[in-house]
Amino acid sequence: MAVDVALSVLLGAHVTHLLLRDEEGRCAGLVTRAQLAAHRGGTWYRDRTCLRDIALDRGPFTSSSAALGDAETAMRERTLGLSPVVDENGYTLGTLALLP
């Protein structure tokens, strides 16, 4: 997906992040508005840049079998406010968010 399309989806859906899937439907990453904001400057660059070409969170993600305390600690160590929760096969079950 191109960055400009991802921005349109984020803005149109009124959400702060998108979960990305690979060709097999497994969780491939998480991209936020803040990460895409850097690409708003020039339309040439933004229109030709794919999400795979920018820095985004590609894991490791929170396992569905992880203890909540361990997941929170891992997120705080990585300074993540949000983490996809995946099953043992890498499919997204939802997201885990830290409260301030």
Would you kindly provide a written description of the structure presented here, covering whatever features stand out?
The chain is an alpha+beta fold and 100 residues long. The protein has one domain (3-97): Roll (CBS-domain), CATH 3.10.580. The protein has 4 helices and 5 strands; from the N terminus they run H-E-E-H-H-E-H-E-E. The strands form 2 sheets. The protein has a 3-stranded mixed β-sheet, with no helix packed on it. Strands 1-2 form a two-stranded antiparallel ribbon. Strand 1 (17-21) and strand 2 form a beta hairpin. The radius of gyration is 14 Å and the shape is globular. It starts with a helix and ends with a strand. The mean pLDDT is 85.
Report strand %: 15-25%
SSE pattern, N- to C-terminal = HEEHHEHEE
Mean pLDDT: 85
The CATH topology is given as CBS-domain
How large is the count of helical segments? 4
For the record, give the distance between the C-alpha atoms at the N and C termini, rounded to a whole number: 32 Å
Going by CATH, the homologous superfamily would be CBS-domain
Q: Could you name the ranges where pLDDT drops below 50 across 5 or more consecutive residues?
A: none
CATH class: Alpha Beta
The overall strand count is 5
Structural class: alpha+beta
The biggest beta sheet is recorded as: 3 strands, mixed
The radius of gyration is 14 Å
- Helicity level, as a percent range? 25-40%
Total domain modules: 1
> What is the global morphology?
globular
